[in-house]
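Annex B.
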Amino acid sequence: MASVAAAEPAPTSDGLDAIPPTESEPLLGGPGDAIQKPNAPMINNLWLGTGWIAQIGNLLLLVVIWAGVFTHPTMKLVSPHPLLQSLGVFTLSQAILLLQPTDQPETKLLGQRGHAVLQLLSFLLFAAGISVIETNKVVSHGVHLHSAHGWLGAVTAALLLAQYVFGLLMWAFPAVLGGVDAAKALWKYHRYTGYTLFLLVLATVAAAAATPYNKGILKIKLWSILLAVALILIGTFPRIQLKKLGIQRHHTQ
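Eukaryotic cytochrome b561-domain-containing protein: predicted structure tokens.
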């Protein structure tokens, strides 16, 4: 009998060759669903795949918080805190969504630069927001860490600072960690801790609904925050590339 040669994988309609599942498979979805296409603008990464769902959640969270602040009496050393922190969360989310779909060396490098800039901006926003509320505590002789929101915020801020430093060392100063190869081996741990911290950030936002400031003045409903958080998670986590976490799925034929 004549032997039949195995057919070459046909190119996909978007110009990408068929990619092995373990190389490009997201947490949910098929291979290549959350991969940046060749020559596609980097900005498209912000809504690629399920990213648009996350962006709806991000915008909803901003609208809910900013509307709550500006439709009620403002306080000079309190009102800027939710405004700045909500912008910090928005920027942090953009930093994650921008980098997630990158797959090739060129796009990864550009994505890392954008990720670093956005992370720096989110750090400055968070730091400014924390400074405002801490100044208020000192001036008014208020009690520090008197709520779940305060405790979560303090712990999350400390861990975020460590995460920022860790990421900066791996990206800009790999020699400190033993060289480029040693730094690359640590990237997956940076991603694991990053996604965990993102959950903590969103939990801190949700916990703010139970604070006296929100209950007494802003009156933002918990369900509206939880809806925004749910949309952000639904849009972000399914796009996680398994190979970037060191996970491979073995598919049976």
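DSSP finds eight helices and no strands in the chain. The helical segments are 21-24, 51-70, 80-99, 105-140, 148-172, 180-207, 212-218, 222-236. Further annotation is deferred to the next reporting cycle.
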